[in-house]
Amino acid sequence: MTKQKAVVVFSGGQDSTTCLFWALEKFDEVEAVTFNYGQRHALEIECAKKIAAEQGVKHHILDMTLLNQLAPNALTRDDITVQAGEDGALPNTFVPGRNLLFFSFAGVLASQIGAQHIVVGVSEADFSGYPDCRDAFVKSFNQTLNLALDEPFTVHTPLMELDKAAVWGLSDTLGVMQYVKENTLTCYNGVISDGCGECPSCILRNRGYAQYVEKKVQA
Q1: Which has the closest alpha carbon to 71: 44, 88, 45, 90?
Q2: What number is the average pLDDT over the span 79-107?
Q3: What's the mean pLDDT in 11-22?
Q4: Maximum CA extent, the chain
């Protein structure tokens, strides 16, 4: 029987780390890929390295700094203040083309290492309006990737329909909620674990955690 092998697009944040543990439960072999695109905090990459090493997962880090040149934004420039979108506009943390490029390179890597599964941590339920987090985009991309490389890849999105509370619930079901809480970096200001508590990412993460814990206590 052929072993099922997966590549996880891995940032070291809550969502991708939850996806990593999900993949470790589901597939025979798992490797992770992290992209250096000149992100605001190099600590993000260090978190990813640490988690991958602790879980015994082979970890690839690819240079995607060209993205920073093409699409300067609040996630790559210290001199741009993180701001939520107003009047239906996208927040300035949206990096145009990021997931399109990342998923494409993850597909090329998967082809090279003999993996037919690609796991990504995008969600429609609790995202910031990013068009490249939509289910329609992922399904379209999956078809395009298969045509481009002439291989039968499956792109998995285990968080697609989960809000942040439900993502915490998934990590709890996997038995790793505390690990995810303590070791991941989601904060736009580069603070590991519970973060700064003030940026949009921290507010979303911490609110989801509180909602999940409350629901669990009431159950």
Answers
A1: 90
A2: 68
A3: 97
A4: 53
pLDDT of res. 75: 52
Distance, in Å, from the CA atom of 199 to the CA atom of 75, rounded to the nearest integer, reads 12
Question: If you search the block for the tokens 């700094």, which residue do you land on?
Answer: 65
What is the number of residues in the chain? Answer: 219
Residue 139 pLDDT grade (very low, low, confident, very high; cuts 50, 70, 90): very high
Residue 88 has pLDDT above 60, yes or no: no
pLDDT at 200 over 80: yes
- Give CA–CA dist 63/205, Å, rounded: 28
Give the count of beta carbons closer than 10 Å to the beta carbon of residue 213.
14
Please give the helix or strand (H or E) that residue 31 lies within, else none: strand 29-36
Query: What's phi and psi for 60, nearest 5 deg?
Result: -105, 135
The predicted model gives 35-56 an average pLDDT of 90
Burial of residue 188 (CB within 10 Å: 0-12, 13-18, 19+) is: buried
Sign of the C-alpha dihedral, residues 35, 129, 214, 170? negative
Helix/strand/coil percentages in the chain, nearest 5: 45, 10, 45
Strand ordering across the sheet containing 5-9: 58-63, 29-36, 5-9, 117-119, 154-156
* Residue 83, token pair as written in the block: 């701001």
